């Protein structure tokens, strides 16, 4: 149940971020920047929570989201490129949450314009399908 809810949150934030990209963002406006940052943060956190829940369901004892990515890769649920993209997402989220005073606006702009957040959504959907194929249930 939790995994399905997290997928919904990821999908909703992909839509929000796509809308922001379509409308265009006034990067000089702090409120607009914060709106994009918040949407990216919630999206990334939902992806991270999805990964951590998956590790838990698989019995992988991990202490960090980065260790979870490694565990999922070792179990064949992630390919190399997917794992690296998720590591970047985790690092980006950590910067947004913990180093908010030193946000690189150009980096945020590249994330939004490159629409990498869509890639993360696709990866968690693929993991979801792989879990289903393996018969892993989320009670």
Automatic annotation (TrEMBL):
Q: Name one GO molecular function term.
A: RNA nuclease activity
Recorded hits in PANTHER family, A to Z, give:
RNASE YUTE-RELATED, UPF0331 PROTEIN YUTE
Question: Could you give one GO CC term from the UniProt record?
Answer: toxin-antitoxin complex
**Organism field:** Pyrobaculum oguniense (strain DSM 13380 / JCM 10595 / TE7)
| Listed transmembrane segments | none
Protein keywords: Hydrolase, Nuclease, Toxin-antitoxin system
Q: What is this protein called?
A: DUF86 domain-containing protein
- So what family is this one in? Belongs to the HepT RNase toxin family.
Write down the superkingdom of origin: Archaea
| Gene3D superfamilies noted in UniProt | bsu32300-like (1.20.120.580)
